[in-house]
Design goal:
Number of helices: 15
Order of helices and strands: EEHEEEEHEHHHHHEHEEHEHEHEHHHH
Number of strands: 13
Helix content: 40-55%
Shape: flat
Bound molecules: guanosine-5'-diphosphate
Strand content: 15-25%
Radius of gyration: 29 Å
Distance between the termini: 22 Å
Largest sheet: 7 strands, mixed
Strand order of the largest sheet: 3-4-5-6-2-1-7
Low-confidence stretches: 244-257, 276-280
Length: 457
Protein backbone atom coordinates (compact mmCIF):
# COMPACT_ATOMS: atom_id res chain seq x y z
CA UNK A 1 0.00 0.00 0.00
CA UNK A 2 1.10 3.54 -0.76
CA UNK A 3 2.38 5.47 2.18
CA UNK A 4 0.70 8.54 3.61
CA UNK A 5 2.84 11.65 3.30
CA UNK A 6 2.91 14.97 5.11
CA UNK A 7 4.74 18.29 4.95
CA UNK A 8 4.48 21.93 5.89
CA UNK A 9 3.04 23.43 2.70
CA UNK A 10 3.36 27.10 3.56
CA UNK A 11 6.59 29.10 3.71
CA UNK A 12 8.49 28.33 6.87
CA UNK A 13 8.48 31.74 8.56
CA UNK A 14 6.65 33.36 11.39
CA UNK A 15 3.25 34.10 9.88
CA UNK A 16 -0.39 34.17 10.95
CA UNK A 17 -1.12 30.63 9.86
CA UNK A 18 0.78 27.65 8.55
CA UNK A 19 -0.63 24.69 6.66
CA UNK A 20 0.37 21.07 7.17
CA UNK A 21 -0.79 18.87 4.35
CA UNK A 22 -1.36 15.13 4.66
CA UNK A 23 -2.13 12.90 1.67
CA UNK A 24 -2.56 9.16 1.26
CA UNK A 25 -4.81 6.23 2.12
CA UNK A 26 -4.25 6.64 5.85
CA UNK A 27 -4.74 10.43 6.01
CA UNK A 28 -8.11 10.25 7.81
CA UNK A 29 -6.83 7.77 10.40
CA UNK A 30 -3.74 9.87 11.09
CA UNK A 31 -5.81 12.98 11.75
CA UNK A 32 -8.27 11.07 13.93
CA UNK A 33 -5.40 9.93 16.12
CA UNK A 34 -4.36 13.50 16.90
CA UNK A 35 -7.45 15.68 16.44
CA UNK A 36 -9.98 16.50 19.16
CA UNK A 37 -13.08 18.57 18.52
CA UNK A 38 -14.35 20.98 21.14
CA UNK A 39 -16.83 18.47 22.57
CA UNK A 40 -14.32 15.68 22.04
CA UNK A 41 -16.72 13.44 20.11
CA UNK A 42 -16.19 14.24 16.43
CA UNK A 43 -14.41 11.74 14.24
CA UNK A 44 -12.98 13.24 11.08
CA UNK A 45 -13.34 10.00 9.20
CA UNK A 46 -17.11 10.13 9.53
CA UNK A 47 -17.42 13.73 8.36
CA UNK A 48 -18.43 14.78 4.88
CA UNK A 49 -15.74 15.50 2.33
CA UNK A 50 -14.74 19.11 1.69
CA UNK A 51 -15.69 20.38 5.14
CA UNK A 52 -13.72 22.32 7.77
CA UNK A 53 -13.56 21.46 11.46
CA UNK A 54 -12.45 23.49 14.44
CA UNK A 55 -10.53 21.80 17.23
CA UNK A 56 -7.17 20.89 18.75
CA UNK A 57 -4.13 18.80 17.89
CA UNK A 58 -2.97 16.53 20.68
CA UNK A 59 0.08 14.31 20.93
CA UNK A 60 -1.34 11.68 23.30
CA UNK A 61 -2.34 13.91 26.23
CA UNK A 62 -0.20 16.92 25.32
CA UNK A 63 -2.00 19.84 23.69
CA UNK A 64 -0.03 21.06 20.67
CA UNK A 65 -2.15 23.71 18.93
CA UNK A 66 -5.59 25.07 18.19
CA UNK A 67 -6.43 24.37 14.56
CA UNK A 68 -8.86 24.21 11.65
CA UNK A 69 -8.86 20.89 9.82
CA UNK A 70 -9.95 20.72 6.20
CA UNK A 71 -10.85 17.27 4.90
CA UNK A 72 -11.00 16.27 1.25
CA UNK A 73 -11.74 12.69 0.40
CA UNK A 74 -10.47 10.94 -2.73
CA UNK A 75 -10.78 11.23 -5.64
CA UNK A 76 -11.69 14.92 -5.86
CA UNK A 77 -8.48 16.26 -4.38
CA UNK A 78 -5.24 17.71 -5.75
CA UNK A 79 -3.37 14.41 -5.37
CA UNK A 80 -6.38 12.21 -6.07
CA UNK A 81 -5.91 10.68 -2.60
CA UNK A 82 -7.55 11.35 0.76
CA UNK A 83 -6.15 14.68 1.84
CA UNK A 84 -6.19 16.62 5.09
CA UNK A 85 -4.96 20.15 5.60
CA UNK A 86 -4.33 21.43 9.08
CA UNK A 87 -4.44 25.21 9.49
CA UNK A 88 -2.34 25.83 12.55
CA UNK A 89 -0.71 28.90 14.08
CA UNK A 90 2.06 30.02 11.76
CA UNK A 91 5.10 30.09 14.03
CA UNK A 92 8.03 28.01 12.83
CA UNK A 93 8.10 26.04 16.07
CA UNK A 94 4.33 25.45 16.08
CA UNK A 95 4.27 24.23 12.47
CA UNK A 96 7.17 21.88 13.07
CA UNK A 97 5.56 20.56 16.22
CA UNK A 98 2.25 19.85 14.46
CA UNK A 99 4.12 18.17 11.59
CA UNK A 100 6.13 16.08 14.06
CA UNK A 101 2.91 14.93 15.68
CA UNK A 102 1.45 13.99 12.29
CA UNK A 103 4.62 12.03 11.46
CA UNK A 104 4.63 10.28 14.81
CA UNK A 105 1.08 9.08 14.23
CA UNK A 106 1.44 7.32 10.92
CA UNK A 107 2.58 9.62 8.10
CA UNK A 108 6.04 10.00 6.63
CA UNK A 109 7.77 13.17 5.42
CA UNK A 110 6.95 14.04 1.81
CA UNK A 111 9.89 14.46 -0.53
CA UNK A 112 10.10 17.63 -2.68
CA UNK A 113 7.27 17.70 -5.23
CA UNK A 114 5.77 14.46 -3.96
CA UNK A 115 2.21 15.79 -3.69
CA UNK A 116 2.34 16.98 -7.30
CA UNK A 117 4.01 13.75 -8.38
CA UNK A 118 1.12 11.80 -6.89
CA UNK A 119 -1.32 14.11 -8.68
CA UNK A 120 0.48 13.18 -11.91
CA UNK A 121 0.69 9.45 -11.18
CA UNK A 122 -3.01 9.40 -10.27
CA UNK A 123 -3.90 11.12 -13.55
CA UNK A 124 -5.13 14.35 -11.94
CA UNK A 125 -2.60 16.33 -14.01
CA UNK A 126 -0.51 15.54 -17.04
CA UNK A 127 3.23 16.21 -16.85
CA UNK A 128 3.03 19.62 -18.55
CA UNK A 129 0.44 20.71 -16.00
CA UNK A 130 2.49 19.38 -13.11
CA UNK A 131 5.48 21.38 -14.36
CA UNK A 132 3.24 24.42 -14.64
CA UNK A 133 2.53 24.12 -10.91
CA UNK A 134 6.20 24.83 -10.29
CA UNK A 135 6.19 27.69 -12.80
CA UNK A 136 3.21 29.28 -11.04
CA UNK A 137 5.11 29.15 -7.75
CA UNK A 138 8.22 30.66 -9.35
CA UNK A 139 6.48 33.27 -11.52
CA UNK A 140 8.27 36.60 -11.38
CA UNK A 141 5.76 38.76 -13.20
CA UNK A 142 2.16 38.95 -14.41
CA UNK A 143 2.86 37.46 -17.81
CA UNK A 144 4.77 34.51 -16.37
CA UNK A 145 1.92 33.87 -13.97
CA UNK A 146 -0.69 34.10 -16.73
CA UNK A 147 1.15 31.76 -19.06
CA UNK A 148 1.81 29.18 -16.33
CA UNK A 149 -1.82 29.36 -15.24
CA UNK A 150 -2.89 28.66 -18.82
CA UNK A 151 -0.54 25.67 -18.86
CA UNK A 152 -1.88 24.51 -15.53
CA UNK A 153 -5.37 24.65 -17.03
CA UNK A 154 -4.03 22.40 -19.78
CA UNK A 155 -3.23 24.66 -22.76
CA UNK A 156 -0.04 22.80 -23.71
CA UNK A 157 -1.63 19.42 -23.09
CA UNK A 158 -4.57 20.29 -25.32
CA UNK A 159 -2.38 21.26 -28.28
CA UNK A 160 -0.16 18.23 -27.87
CA UNK A 161 -3.06 15.80 -27.56
CA UNK A 162 -4.61 17.22 -30.72
CA UNK A 163 -1.38 16.88 -32.72
CA UNK A 164 -0.83 13.35 -31.45
CA UNK A 165 -4.39 12.39 -32.37
CA UNK A 166 -3.72 13.31 -36.01
CA UNK A 167 -0.47 11.36 -36.06
CA UNK A 168 -1.96 8.31 -34.38
CA UNK A 169 -4.77 8.15 -36.93
CA UNK A 170 -2.22 7.76 -39.70
CA UNK A 171 -0.10 5.24 -37.83
CA UNK A 172 -3.23 3.15 -37.36
CA UNK A 173 -4.28 3.60 -40.97
CA UNK A 174 -0.95 2.41 -42.35
CA UNK A 175 -0.88 -0.54 -39.96
CA UNK A 176 -4.38 -1.62 -40.94
CA UNK A 177 -3.59 -1.26 -44.64
CA UNK A 178 -0.48 -3.39 -44.29
CA UNK A 179 -2.43 -6.02 -42.36
CA UNK A 180 -5.32 -6.06 -44.76
CA UNK A 181 -4.07 -5.06 -48.23
CA UNK A 182 -7.12 -6.60 -49.91
CA UNK A 183 -9.53 -4.12 -48.39
CA UNK A 184 -7.45 -1.01 -47.75
CA UNK A 185 -5.56 0.39 -50.68
CA UNK A 186 -2.58 2.68 -50.22
CA UNK A 187 -2.53 4.02 -53.79
CA UNK A 188 -2.12 7.78 -53.67
CA UNK A 189 -1.87 7.65 -49.90
CA UNK A 190 1.68 9.07 -49.63
CA UNK A 191 0.48 12.36 -51.17
CA UNK A 192 -2.28 12.58 -48.63
CA UNK A 193 0.12 11.80 -45.79
CA UNK A 194 2.55 14.45 -47.06
CA UNK A 195 -0.19 17.08 -46.67
CA UNK A 196 -0.99 15.94 -43.15
CA UNK A 197 2.65 15.82 -42.05
CA UNK A 198 3.28 19.32 -43.36
CA UNK A 199 0.21 20.61 -41.54
CA UNK A 200 1.34 18.96 -38.32
CA UNK A 201 4.82 20.43 -38.73
CA UNK A 202 3.28 23.88 -39.08
CA UNK A 203 1.45 23.35 -35.77
CA UNK A 204 4.65 22.17 -34.12
CA UNK A 205 6.66 25.08 -35.56
CA UNK A 206 4.17 27.51 -34.10
CA UNK A 207 4.71 26.01 -30.67
CA UNK A 208 8.49 25.97 -31.07
CA UNK A 209 8.58 29.61 -32.13
CA UNK A 210 6.46 30.58 -29.13
CA UNK A 211 9.30 29.31 -26.96
CA UNK A 212 11.40 32.44 -27.58
CA UNK A 213 8.63 34.63 -26.21
CA UNK A 214 8.04 31.96 -23.60
CA UNK A 215 11.59 32.14 -22.36
CA UNK A 216 11.46 35.91 -22.17
CA UNK A 217 8.15 35.73 -20.30
CA UNK A 218 9.54 33.24 -17.85
CA UNK A 219 13.10 34.40 -17.33
CA UNK A 220 13.01 38.04 -18.30
CA UNK A 221 14.58 39.98 -21.18
CA UNK A 222 18.34 39.76 -20.81
CA UNK A 223 19.23 43.44 -21.03
CA UNK A 224 22.63 45.06 -21.21
CA UNK A 225 23.23 48.73 -20.55
CA UNK A 226 26.07 50.10 -22.64
CA UNK A 227 27.57 53.55 -22.91
CA UNK A 228 30.87 55.25 -22.38
CA UNK A 229 31.96 56.22 -18.88
CA UNK A 230 29.89 58.95 -17.26
CA UNK A 231 27.03 58.68 -19.72
CA UNK A 232 24.74 57.79 -16.81
CA UNK A 233 24.46 53.98 -16.98
CA UNK A 234 24.60 53.37 -13.24
CA UNK A 235 22.23 56.27 -12.58
CA UNK A 236 19.79 54.79 -15.05
CA UNK A 237 20.09 51.34 -13.56
CA UNK A 238 19.41 52.78 -10.13
CA UNK A 239 16.32 54.56 -11.35
CA UNK A 240 15.04 51.41 -13.01
CA UNK A 241 15.80 49.23 -10.03
CA UNK A 242 14.65 51.84 -7.57
CA UNK A 243 17.55 51.32 -5.17
CA UNK A 244 21.15 52.40 -4.76
CA UNK A 245 22.80 49.08 -5.55
CA UNK A 246 25.07 50.19 -8.40
CA UNK A 247 27.91 52.48 -7.40
CA UNK A 248 27.35 55.88 -8.96
CA UNK A 249 30.43 58.05 -9.25
CA UNK A 250 31.88 61.05 -11.08
CA UNK A 251 35.20 59.33 -11.81
CA UNK A 252 35.28 57.88 -15.29
CA UNK A 253 35.53 54.09 -15.50
CA UNK A 254 34.75 53.06 -11.95
CA UNK A 255 31.84 50.74 -12.59
CA UNK A 256 34.03 47.73 -13.14
CA UNK A 257 31.90 44.96 -11.88
CA UNK A 258 29.00 43.50 -13.71
CA UNK A 259 25.81 43.84 -11.72
CA UNK A 260 22.63 41.89 -12.24
CA UNK A 261 19.16 43.03 -11.28
CA UNK A 262 15.63 41.95 -12.10
CA UNK A 263 13.14 44.70 -12.65
CA UNK A 264 9.46 44.61 -13.44
CA UNK A 265 8.18 46.89 -16.14
CA UNK A 266 4.41 46.62 -16.02
CA UNK A 267 4.36 42.85 -16.09
CA UNK A 268 7.54 42.34 -18.12
CA UNK A 269 10.76 41.32 -16.45
CA UNK A 270 14.09 42.78 -17.48
CA UNK A 271 17.14 40.93 -16.31
CA UNK A 272 19.46 43.91 -16.24
CA UNK A 273 23.18 43.63 -16.57
CA UNK A 274 25.30 46.73 -16.03
CA UNK A 275 28.78 46.67 -17.49
CA UNK A 276 31.97 48.63 -17.28
CA UNK A 277 31.90 51.69 -19.48
CA UNK A 278 33.01 50.78 -22.96
CA UNK A 279 36.05 52.75 -24.05
CA UNK A 280 39.47 52.29 -25.42
CA UNK A 281 41.62 51.84 -22.35
CA UNK A 282 45.05 50.70 -21.24
CA UNK A 283 43.94 49.87 -17.73
CA UNK A 284 44.15 46.07 -17.43
CA UNK A 285 41.35 45.64 -14.92
CA UNK A 286 39.08 47.87 -16.87
CA UNK A 287 39.98 46.15 -20.09
CA UNK A 288 38.55 42.89 -18.76
CA UNK A 289 35.34 44.72 -18.00
CA UNK A 290 35.14 46.14 -21.49
CA UNK A 291 35.77 42.82 -23.20
CA UNK A 292 33.18 41.20 -21.03
CA UNK A 293 30.75 43.95 -21.90
CA UNK A 294 31.19 43.30 -25.60
CA UNK A 295 30.80 39.58 -25.05
CA UNK A 296 27.68 39.97 -22.96
CA UNK A 297 26.18 42.41 -25.45
CA UNK A 298 26.46 39.69 -28.05
CA UNK A 299 24.31 37.36 -25.95
CA UNK A 300 21.79 39.94 -24.82
CA UNK A 301 18.16 40.01 -25.91
CA UNK A 302 18.19 43.80 -25.66
CA UNK A 303 20.82 46.53 -25.47
CA UNK A 304 20.11 49.88 -23.87
CA UNK A 305 22.71 52.30 -25.12
CA UNK A 306 23.03 55.35 -22.90
CA UNK A 307 24.27 58.36 -24.87
CA UNK A 308 25.24 61.56 -23.07
CA UNK A 309 23.37 64.45 -24.70
CA UNK A 310 25.65 66.98 -23.03
CA UNK A 311 28.70 65.74 -24.91
CA UNK A 312 29.51 65.36 -28.58
CA UNK A 313 29.80 61.88 -30.09
CA UNK A 314 33.32 60.48 -30.19
CA UNK A 315 35.14 57.34 -31.25
CA UNK A 316 33.77 55.38 -28.26
CA UNK A 317 30.20 56.09 -29.25
CA UNK A 318 30.83 54.97 -32.78
CA UNK A 319 32.34 51.75 -31.48
CA UNK A 320 29.26 51.10 -29.39
CA UNK A 321 26.96 51.88 -32.30
CA UNK A 322 28.89 49.23 -34.18
CA UNK A 323 28.07 46.63 -31.47
CA UNK A 324 24.37 47.54 -31.75
CA UNK A 325 24.13 46.66 -35.41
CA UNK A 326 21.69 43.82 -36.05
CA UNK A 327 20.65 43.67 -32.38
CA UNK A 328 17.50 44.71 -30.62
CA UNK A 329 18.56 48.00 -29.09
CA UNK A 330 17.22 51.28 -27.80
CA UNK A 331 19.27 54.47 -27.63
CA UNK A 332 18.65 56.46 -24.49
CA UNK A 333 19.39 60.13 -25.11
CA UNK A 334 20.29 60.89 -21.50
CA UNK A 335 20.71 64.08 -19.46
CA UNK A 336 17.96 65.97 -21.25
CA UNK A 337 17.86 68.26 -18.22
CA UNK A 338 21.16 69.74 -19.40
CA UNK A 339 21.88 72.00 -22.35
CA UNK A 340 22.21 69.66 -25.38
CA UNK A 341 25.53 69.46 -27.19
CA UNK A 342 24.73 66.35 -29.19
CA UNK A 343 21.61 66.91 -31.33
CA UNK A 344 19.08 64.10 -30.95
CA UNK A 345 18.54 64.09 -34.69
CA UNK A 346 22.19 63.19 -35.17
CA UNK A 347 21.67 59.88 -33.35
CA UNK A 348 18.53 59.12 -35.31
CA UNK A 349 20.46 59.83 -38.51
CA UNK A 350 23.35 57.45 -37.85
CA UNK A 351 21.38 54.58 -36.32
CA UNK A 352 18.24 52.57 -37.12
CA UNK A 353 17.39 52.06 -33.47
CA UNK A 354 14.73 54.07 -31.64
CA UNK A 355 16.07 57.11 -29.76
CA UNK A 356 14.29 57.95 -26.52
CA UNK A 357 15.02 61.16 -24.58
CA UNK A 358 15.44 60.49 -20.86
CA UNK A 359 16.92 62.06 -17.79
CA UNK A 360 18.16 59.60 -15.20
CA UNK A 361 18.53 62.54 -12.85
CA UNK A 362 14.97 63.79 -13.16
CA UNK A 363 13.52 60.35 -13.89
CA UNK A 364 11.78 61.39 -17.08
CA UNK A 365 11.17 59.41 -20.26
CA UNK A 366 10.90 56.02 -18.52
CA UNK A 367 7.29 55.41 -19.62
CA UNK A 368 8.38 55.82 -23.25
CA UNK A 369 11.19 53.37 -22.67
CA UNK A 370 8.74 50.84 -21.24
CA UNK A 371 6.45 51.19 -24.23
CA UNK A 372 9.30 50.89 -26.67
CA UNK A 373 10.48 47.62 -25.08
CA UNK A 374 6.99 46.19 -25.10
CA UNK A 375 6.53 47.07 -28.78
CA UNK A 376 9.90 45.64 -29.65
CA UNK A 377 9.30 42.26 -28.02
CA UNK A 378 5.60 41.66 -28.16
CA UNK A 379 4.26 44.13 -30.70
CA UNK A 380 2.41 45.84 -27.89
CA UNK A 381 0.40 43.15 -26.15
CA UNK A 382 0.74 39.53 -25.29
CA UNK A 383 -2.39 37.54 -25.91
CA UNK A 384 -3.11 34.62 -23.66
CA UNK A 385 -6.51 33.84 -25.09
CA UNK A 386 -5.67 31.81 -28.16
CA UNK A 387 -1.89 31.55 -28.04
CA UNK A 388 -0.12 28.71 -26.30
CA UNK A 389 3.34 29.65 -25.06
CA UNK A 390 5.98 27.00 -24.58
CA UNK A 391 8.03 28.13 -21.59
CA UNK A 392 9.72 24.88 -20.69
CA UNK A 393 12.98 23.83 -22.38
CA UNK A 394 12.11 20.16 -21.99
CA UNK A 395 8.95 20.70 -24.00
CA UNK A 396 10.79 22.64 -26.68
CA UNK A 397 13.36 19.87 -27.10
CA UNK A 398 10.65 17.22 -27.42
CA UNK A 399 8.87 19.35 -30.04
CA UNK A 400 12.11 19.69 -32.01
CA UNK A 401 12.64 15.95 -31.93
CA UNK A 402 9.12 15.35 -33.15
CA UNK A 403 9.73 17.83 -35.94
CA UNK A 404 12.87 15.96 -36.96
CA UNK A 405 11.04 12.62 -37.06
CA UNK A 406 8.39 14.18 -39.29
CA UNK A 407 11.19 15.39 -41.59
CA UNK A 408 12.20 11.75 -41.89
CA UNK A 409 8.64 10.86 -42.89
CA UNK A 410 8.78 13.51 -45.62
CA UNK A 411 12.13 12.13 -46.78
CA UNK A 412 10.76 8.60 -46.96
CA UNK A 413 7.74 9.77 -48.95
CA UNK A 414 9.99 11.70 -51.35
CA UNK A 415 12.16 8.66 -51.85
CA UNK A 416 9.11 6.44 -52.35
CA UNK A 417 10.05 4.14 -49.52
CA UNK A 418 7.64 1.39 -48.39
CA UNK A 419 4.85 2.53 -46.05
CA UNK A 420 6.18 0.84 -42.92
CA UNK A 421 9.06 3.34 -43.03
CA UNK A 422 6.51 6.12 -42.60
CA UNK A 423 4.96 4.54 -39.57
CA UNK A 424 8.27 4.06 -37.74
CA UNK A 425 9.02 7.80 -37.87
CA UNK A 426 5.42 8.77 -37.21
CA UNK A 427 5.64 6.61 -34.10
CA UNK A 428 8.84 8.36 -33.03
CA UNK A 429 7.18 11.76 -33.42
CA UNK A 430 4.18 10.48 -31.46
CA UNK A 431 6.40 9.31 -28.63
CA UNK A 432 8.49 12.50 -28.49
CA UNK A 433 5.30 14.52 -28.12
CA UNK A 434 4.06 12.05 -25.52
CA UNK A 435 7.00 12.87 -23.31
CA UNK A 436 5.70 16.44 -22.93
CA UNK A 437 2.49 15.28 -21.33
CA UNK A 438 4.21 12.46 -19.45
CA UNK A 439 3.39 9.45 -21.57
CA UNK A 440 6.22 7.06 -22.28
CA UNK A 441 8.50 8.76 -19.77
CA UNK A 442 10.68 6.68 -17.53
CA UNK A 443 10.65 6.80 -13.77
CA UNK A 444 14.04 8.52 -13.72
CA UNK A 445 12.79 11.52 -15.64
CA UNK A 446 9.67 11.76 -13.48
CA UNK A 447 11.79 11.70 -10.34
CA UNK A 448 14.17 14.29 -11.72
CA UNK A 449 11.37 16.69 -12.67
CA UNK A 450 9.63 16.48 -9.31
CA UNK A 451 12.80 16.72 -7.28
CA UNK A 452 13.11 20.33 -8.45
CA UNK A 453 9.95 21.22 -6.54
CA UNK A 454 9.90 22.58 -3.05
CA UNK A 455 8.81 20.36 -0.20
CA UNK A 456 5.14 20.58 0.57
CA UNK A 457 4.10 20.92 -3.09
P1 LIG B 1 28.21 55.71 -15.77
O1 LIG B 1 29.68 55.88 -15.68
O2 LIG B 1 27.74 55.65 -17.18
O3 LIG B 1 27.66 54.59 -14.94
O4 LIG B 1 27.57 57.08 -15.23
P2 LIG B 1 26.99 57.44 -13.79
O5 LIG B 1 25.61 56.90 -13.65
O6 LIG B 1 27.99 57.13 -12.77
O7 LIG B 1 26.81 59.01 -13.97
C1 LIG B 1 27.90 59.86 -14.23
C2 LIG B 1 27.57 61.27 -13.78
O8 LIG B 1 26.49 61.80 -14.57
C3 LIG B 1 27.08 61.34 -12.32
O9 LIG B 1 27.58 62.52 -11.77
C4 LIG B 1 25.58 61.42 -12.45
O10 LIG B 1 24.99 62.09 -11.37
C5 LIG B 1 25.43 62.21 -13.72
N1 LIG B 1 24.16 61.93 -14.41
C6 LIG B 1 23.65 60.75 -14.77
N2 LIG B 1 22.47 60.91 -15.39
C7 LIG B 1 22.20 62.23 -15.43
C8 LIG B 1 21.12 63.04 -15.95
O11 LIG B 1 20.14 62.57 -16.51
N3 LIG B 1 21.26 64.38 -15.82
C9 LIG B 1 22.32 64.96 -15.20
N4 LIG B 1 22.35 66.27 -15.11
N5 LIG B 1 23.34 64.23 -14.71
C10 LIG B 1 23.29 62.89 -14.81
Amino acid sequence: MLSTIAAISTAVSSAGIGIIRISGPDAMNVIDRIYRSKGGKKRIKEMQSHTIHYGYIYDEETLIDEVLVMIMKAPKTFTGEDTVEIDCHGGIYTCKKVLETVLKHGARTASPGEFTKRAFLNGRLDLSQAEAVMDVIQAKNDYALKSSMEQLKGSVKKSIVEIRRKILYHIAYIESALDDPEHICLDGYPDELMEVVKQVQTDIDKLISSADDGKIIQEGIKTVILGKPNAGKSSLLNVLVGSEKAIVTDIAGTTRDILEEYINLNGLTLKLIDTAGIRDTEDAVEKIGVDRAIHIAREADLILYVADSSRALDEDDYNILEILKGKKAIILYNKTDLEPVLPRIELARISDHPVIPVSAKEETGLKDLEESIRNMFFEGELSFNDEVYITNMRHKEALMEARESLNQVINSIDRMMPEDFFSIDLMNAYESLGRIIGESVGEDLVNEIFSKFCTGK
